[in-house]
TrEMBL record:
This is Phosphotransferase. Keywords: Transferase. InterPro entries: AGP_Transferase, Aminoglycoside_PTrfase, Kinase-like_dom_sf. Residues 4-180 form the Aminoglycoside phosphotransferase domain. One of its GO terms (molecular function) is transferase activity. It comes from the Bacteria. It comes from Nannocystis exedens.
Amino acid sequence: WRVHAPDVIAYPRISGTPAVTMTPEGPQWNILDPAAPSEAFIESFARALAALQSITPETASRAGVPTSTIAEVRAALSRSMDATREALQPSEAVWQRWQRWLADDAMWPQHVALVHGDLHPGHMLLGTDGRLVGILDWTEARVTDPSIDLALFCGCFGRPALAQLVERFAQAGGTTWPRLVDHAAERWAAFPALIAEWALRTDNPTVLEHARGQLAAITAETAA
């Protein structure tokens, strides 16, 4: 950032259009159709993700990037679920879904990787052809569960697009494992707990309501 003050931050303008911008009427998608993301977008996203994860955890750690083991990640998620259970009131079906995912060793990777950590469409810059040309806001970057950026992709674009992404990611040299698609989808299903934890920690009722709204969608999906 070239400008950083309590009320504003700014950095030099770079090329590309955010995939989504917020307007008073709600989110406005630009170039990209979230219901049918293009092959060009998926391929370019996969290549970017593979390039990011090719940076070794050791290199990232030496640069000061926070690092967690998979065991630490699982323990932290369990604490988040416990801490937010009263505020969120997840259904028993959702709660058991979360616990099964946490406990299923076959779901989880045996390695960690460098992730962006907050790779939602507002942080994606697209070219006019729909390809990913830039990524903004690296404040949540860390070495951790490599599925985090994939989980957000699943939440934004759906499981079929996620499966396409994982295929392209592997072709681009990314490291996968047999249950990656399932794991990323289950991580997305657990996101309400993480959002709610942040909302409670910062005393932000608006974000807490957002977490509850996301949980309602997960509840409906779980019951289907």
